[in-house]
Every structure is written in C-alpha cells, then in structure tokens.
C-alpha cells in the first residue's frame, strides 16, 4: 500500500475497479487548508483519461509492474502486434493501450508495462522521439519565413504533423511522441 507521496509519472494504481497509469501529477500545498495531489490518470483498459485529486497521505493501491522491450510488428484493425526482443513471444494490444499509435512504425522498439500478478500487458511507453519520413506536404511559399509559420505534413505512418515551411516531401524529421510535435529535421 502506497501513499500520495509515492505518486510519480508512470505509476500504475488500482482505482475505481480499474487500473490507471498516472500521466501527470502536481503536489499542491495551499496557504490555508490541507495539502493535496492533483493527478491526470489514463485507464490502461479503455484509454480514458480522468482528472482526480487525492488528499495528502491518502492510501493508494499500487500495481506491481515489470517493463520489457517489445518490437512493433504490424497493425491488424484495432489490434497492434508486438514481439518480445528477448524471448520472441508475441502479444497483441488494443489501440487504446497505446499513447501515440499514429507515430508507431513497423520495427520500432517500445517499452511495455506488464502486470506481475497476472502477466497481462498494461500499456506501451513510446520512445521520447521517433524519426519518420515526410510522404506528403505542400511546398513552402518563398519569402514567408519571417514568422514561425507552419504547414501540415503527412508522415510515413499516416500521422499528420505541423512542420516549418522549409520541410519538403522526402525529408526525414524527428517528432516528439508525447505531444506529437515536430522537433527537428534529421540529416541523412
């Protein structure tokens, strides 16, 4: 049994007859009244995100998890198939368990959280950034670089990302997976 002082990003807890992964938290100590922890939690079964406030010292039921490296193989409907990089066993997960499924390309290695009680996969942690090739974008207008102007670009996985005007089709870009935003152009 853990308390609110143990809350951190990525912690999996049992809450309201489901398992939730904490994605954001903030310890708040107001000038008047007791301290509390404001959290944003994502259900690992449905993908639903909820906001919740725990009073300081509140007991939370922590779920013990192990992390394993898995390679993304392919998508089949709403299921995503992964292979363990150590023992080559395969699992399939629902799209709701993934944080950024549109940025996942075949062969990408991700970290999968597995519940140690019943060996069920809970969620997938993407790498901090992914490198993808731009498959379609409109050409930039010459001379329109004085402002931080952006344009939509489609990458090889089908995701759409706003990129600066100098990015062209065929360029390889690095995308921050947490926000789904352009980070930089990658030289080949």
From TrEMBL:
Span of domain Translation elongation factor P/YeiP central: 67-122
Q: Which CDD domains match?
A: S1_EF-P_repeat_1, S1_EF-P_repeat_2
Q: Which Gene3D superfamilies match?
A: 2.30.30.30, Nucleic acid-binding proteins
Q: Known InterPro entries for this protein?
A: Elong-fact-P_C (IPR015365), NA-bd_OB-fold (IPR012340), Rib_uL2_dom2 (IPR014722), Transl_elong_fac_P/YeiP (IPR020599), Transl_elong_KOW-like (IPR013185), Transl_elong_P/YeiP_cen (IPR001059), Transl_elong_P/YeiP_CS (IPR013852), Transl_elongation_fac_P (IPR011768)
Pinpoint the Elongation factor P C-terminal domain residues. Answer: 130-185
The record's function comment reads: Involved in peptide bond synthesis. Stimulates efficient translation and peptide-bond synthesis on native or reconstituted 70S ribosomes in vitro. Probably functions indirectly by altering the affinity of the ribosome for aminoacyl-tRNA, thus increasing their reactivity as acceptors for peptidyl transferase.
Protein name in UniProt: Elongation factor P
Q: What is the lineage of its organism?
A: Bacteria, Pseudomonadati, Bacteroidota, Flavobacteriia, Flavobacteriales
Identify the coding gene.
Answer: efp
